[in-house]
Amino acid sequence: GGRASNLIIEDSSRSDAPSLCFDSGAQFIAVTDPRFEGLLQSPVMKGLLPQWKGRFGILGRSGQVLPRETVMTSRVMRKPRPTEEQQIPPTPDDDDDDNFFRMLEGEETVLRTGANGVGGLCEAICARTSVECIYGANVTSIHLEEGRMGFLGKWHVNAVPITRTTSDPRTISPTPTIPTEPFDAIVLSNHDPSLAADIIDGLLKTSRVATLGGGGVGHQPTREVVAQFVEQLRMAAASRRSLFSLMIAYDRPLHEVAFDGVSLHGSDIIHFLARDSSKPGLGRSDGRECWTAVSSQPFADWMDEEWRIAVAGGRGDVARNRPSLNKEETAMAAAVHEERAREIMMGEFESRLGTFFPHRNMPSPVFSKAQRWDAASFNPIGLDEDNEAVTFHPWGLAVCGDYLGTRQGGLQEAALSGLRAASDVSSWLVQP
């Protein structure tokens, strides 16, 4: 789920047609960090993130496309960088409006994407490195049994099998084997600061450890410093913001449209458009073409406010006096909410692309669906570059995620955070 996800749709009307495949989260990976570029050159990653060789740029209201190369070399439409005195912690929408997920950073920046969509990337990496993965299970609780005399303790993990939908592209055993052996260390790599906050807070209340060195929040952080970090995590979690993705399929390629990926300049509804079928491994032989539109942050914020009103049943006293929706009612409300997002985004999509067709006569889509991308961004905690991951050696615990840094949203940042956590944890485990 989330940024590294695909939406796979089986076509029940055509048994001979391949499934429709959309990158429903992150549309590409902008490689701007030499450390990440070095990782991509390793044998482990070879071929997994090929370059997306397409036509990119900024789509103006008139229908003209300003090529990406022109923007990067001329520096037009870019905000000036603030001076050191002007630097403040950024919020998720502080980036240039047209600089979608770093697409306009650096003349040498390469846009990459998963060989067959980003959804199978993690599984492919784990398979190449012989990492055992348990799919189709939910972790219900974890518990630390502390060690003695300076030794690491053991983590006990409880999990239960879950049922996957048939549209899930991965082949998952319906009855996964849940491991019962304890673990030497735990890495929290999910995109949820509140989970990390709850676990660390629980350890602060029960652990006998006085200092928690080994990287992360200072050299030898006290319990008070760690408690402050917990509050930072909770503040980040409270700032969670979503996005919407609109997936669209046509019976024929839209040859009239002169781009494969663009930021929409001046749109309050859509931030980025991608021709999914132009990506490596997602080309089609049946003549159909898939597109994905990612909403703007203001549109998603507005839709989320509409959702809160719908679920609460109103504002103020009206909302407080309304009974909570049950699970079935919530699911129905969510479906209506996503359909409303689909209608609005589809209108903007057709309005912007209509200029490429004679008399604005676009073909009708054979499929369209909007999907809410929950927890797309947070107000970042803003730790410095040496704290891409936060680790607590005596607990055998590491926390990673792009929300820990000053910039977030891309798979590159998440990967670098995970690498830092892995490096710290491996150094503990090889100590005599």
UniProtKB/TrEMBL annotation:
It comes from the Eukaryota. Residues 75-99 are annotated as: Disordered. Gene3D superfamilies: 3.90.660.10. PANTHER family: FAD/NAD(P)-BINDING OXIDOREDUCTASE FAMILY PROTEIN, FAD_NAD(P)-BINDING OXIDOREDUCTASE FAMILY PROTEIN. This is Amine oxidase domain-containing protein. It comes from Octactis speculum.
